[in-house]
Each structure stands twice: as structure tokens, then as C-alpha cells.
Design goal:
Layout: H1 3-6, E1 22-23, H2 39-52, E2 56-59, E3 62-63, H3 72-88, E4 94-97, E5 100-102, H4 105-113, E6 124-128, H5 138-147, E7 151-155, H6 168-175, E8 179-183, H7 193-204, E9 210-212, H8 218-226, H9 232-235
Parallel strand pairs: 1-2, 2-4, 3-5, 5-6, 6-7, 7-8, 8-9
GO molecular function: manganese ion binding; protein tyrosine phosphatase activity
Keywords: Hydrolase
Protein name: protein-tyrosine-phosphatase
Length: about 250
């Protein structure tokens, strides 16, 4: 039963994520956000992803206009450098780029004016919310994203603590057409007990679509290997794999 998760050599306690197959949330484009800083780190991260069992990944640099003014014109040329370095290192993992869009006025301007986004397979748009205060018109924003032809995917919903008092908001988001992506480290206690508890609640209620690493540094991948989470990784029907063929 545990073979897919830990592999055949249980003495090494190696997590095996080949059943997940594709990671849709990480920060391995160097020097443009709070992720890795060098190409060498990017290659090391890609190698560790491959060791964990991933065959493909969409790295997702922050687009947050107060901090990280990234755009396709900035991200894609550096992605090409990373892809070449990964190929030169003899790795087989496929690396593409989307982005993690913070819902701010700049994001809304891009939507209103039809500017290009970097998307996940299926025209999925990875978005994140503020951590400290809720977005007052989130349902309307989700509807607006969908009206523009995108499938919204909310990054790490388990980390938005202001929703804890009424978690039914997550079901409303899903009912409105939003998909949810939980961080794999939230299934351990890496972000704290409350985040872990909310991640389990979301899973128990069948609200999570995708699993993501949200890896910013190689230590995050090391922690995934040490803290694989719990029984949910064995039985929950994450839908990452369906994105591989898109």
C-alpha cells in the first residue's frame, strides 16, 4: 500500500511522488522573486524534483506589483536559460513556466485590458490572496477571471487564516468555479498546526484539486522528503496527473 509513496526501499524513507507526476507551484526562476537566486540553485531544485518522482513542472514566479514586477518578457528568457542548464545537467524533467498572480490592481488591469498571462495547462490561472486581510469581492473577482476565459486556481487556500472562522467560503469558491491547490508541506506541520488542520479539513471535504510544492529553496524539497504528510497522500484523488497530457 505504501509503495507508491515511499518506493520499494523503505529503509531510506524516500517519498515517491510519481503518482502526482507534475508540480504546478514553485519558484525556481533565479533572481526575480523570493525563490532561488542562481541558475545552479535552479538546476539543483530540478534534480531534487526529479528524485521526488516529478516528470514535469510549471514553475510560478510571483507577479505582485508592489514587490515583484514580473511579466512574460522577464520570465520567459530566464526560463530558457534554466531549461538549457537542466538539459546540460542530464536531467529529464520538463520545465515550463506559468506565474503566481497576486490579486491586486495591476492584476485586475491586466484582466480588463486583455494583457497576456502565463498560465498552467488548460488555461488555468494560479492566483493568490493577501495573507493578512480578506479580499472583499473575491466571488466577483473569480467570476470576472472566468468571464475572461481563464480557469482560476487558488494557491494554498489553507494558509488564509481569515477564512478559518467560516471555512464554508472555500466551498462557495469551488461552487463558483475556482479550483484549489494545497501545499504538500501543509499536510505536515511545516506551516504550523492550524494550517495543517485546515489542509486536512479541505481534503476531508473533497475541495482540493491539485497538490503543489510551493518550493522556494531546496530545503523545502528536503522537508517534503522528511515529512511526506499523512494518509491523505495515499488515497486522495489529486488531479495533477490529468494536466500532463494537456
Amino acid at each position: 500500500m505504501l509503495n507508491w509513496l515511499f518506493g520499494k526501499n523503505k529503509s531510506n524513507h524516500k517519498i515517491n511522488l510519481d503518482r502526482i507526476g507534475i508540480d504546478i507551484h514553485s519558484h525556481i526562476i533565479p533572481g526575480i522573486d523570493d525563490g532561488v537566486e542562481t541558475i545552479e540553485e535552479s538546476v539543483a531544485m530540478a534534480a531534487r524534483m526529479q528524485e521526488l518522482g516529478y516528470s514535469r513542472m510549471f514553475t510560478t514566479p510571483h507577479v505582485m506589483w508592489d514587490c515583484y514586477r514580473n511579466s512574460p518578457e522577464i520570465i520567459l528568457p530566464i526560463l530558457t536559460e534554466v531549461q538549457q542548464a537542466v538539459k546540460n545537467a542530464g536531467l529529464s524533467i520538463q520545465i515550463n513556466a506559468a506565474a503566481e498572480y497576486f490579486i491586486d490592481e495591476h492584476f485586475m488591469h491586466l484582466l480588463r485590458t486583455g494583457q497576456p498571462f502565463l498560465t498552467l495547462p488548460g488555461n488555468r490561472l494560479l492566483v493568490e490572496l493577501p495573507y493578512s486581510t480578506p479580499l472583499l469581492n473575491i466571488s466577483e473577482t473569480i467570476f470576472f477571471i472566468i468571464s475572461k476565459g481563464y480557469q482560476p486556481v487558488l494557491a494554498h487556500p489553507e494558509r488564509y487564516t481569515y477564512f478559518y472562522s467560516d471555512p464554508s467560503v472555500y466551498k462557495k469558491l469551488c461552487d463558483h468555479g475556482c479550483e484549489l491547490q494545497v501545499n504538500i508541506l501543509s499536510l505536515s506541520h511545516y506551516y504550523g498546526a492550524n494550517v495543517h488542520k485546515m489542509a486536512e479539513w479541505l481534503l476531508k471535504n473533497g475541495l482540493i484539486t491539485f497538490l503543489g510544492t510551493d518550493a522556494h529553496k531546496i530545503q523545502h524539497l528536503d522537508m517534503i522528503n522528511k515529512n511526506p504528510g499523512n494518509h491523505w497522500l495515499l488515497k486522495y484523488p489529486f488531479q495533477n496527473e490529468k494536466l500532463i497530457s494537456i
